[in-house]
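Revision sheet: structure tokens.
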Amino acid sequence: MKVHRLFTTFLCLFTLTAIGQPGTPNTDVSTPFFVPTENIGYYSLAGKSIPVHVLQYGDRTNLVCINLHSNEDASVKAAMSILEKTGGTLIRIENRGQRVIRFKLKGITYAFDPNRMFSSEGIQQTLRENSRVQAAAAAEIEKFAAHILDKLTDTAACVVALHNNTEGAYSIRTYLEGGQRQSDAKAVYANENEDPDDIILTTDSLLYQAMSDQGYNSIWQDNERVKKDGSLSVHFGIIGRRYINIETQHGKVEQYAAMLEKLIAILDEEKKLPELQ
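Predicted:
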């Protein structure tokens, strides 16, 4: 009976250790290493409440992942599975599984792509494509974009955009010779053995080289010549901040996780190099 009680006590203590505390590591390999703390803020866009989730995994602040399109959930699932092991921050806009955000202003409905709101030109373009252009609506979107940028703190050595795509609609071929966005790329690496829809796009030459060396379809954005479409990659390219977009087809969680895990390993390895410290 005493042995049974001792075993039961030990089992309870082990279970409590395995669960861990929010934002702190635990040592049981069968459970996540970091349990995230989550903060949900509600941004009022012309009276429409938009939830913005911030999940913090451990104390790591030099890695920030952001999901702008609410319908691209495979990337979010993959990021959660990796950040549980590595630590970092995950920010996502909740929009009921929709890509385009809609809101009303004085009874009129406006719609925009949240990855086209990071410049005045981009806001004008996305309003034109999805609804109508109106100065007051553009001003509301511009304030929302500033709110999101404020969350991408300067402590982040790299901002990682979490995206998914549809087969054939957007791929490495988009940036190759003859592709629709050929002039947006400074360099392109295409691996014929990889799915052309699984790609990375970065503002940074070192990340481009490192990811292409791993065999991933890679694009180094031409930060000077790229079309000023209001996307986050263009915004960070202009201001000279390190950014990378990882994309796979919808549903490819395992492939996405593998690409993100490799990227984080590369970023961690850089810390050991004196010239990058």
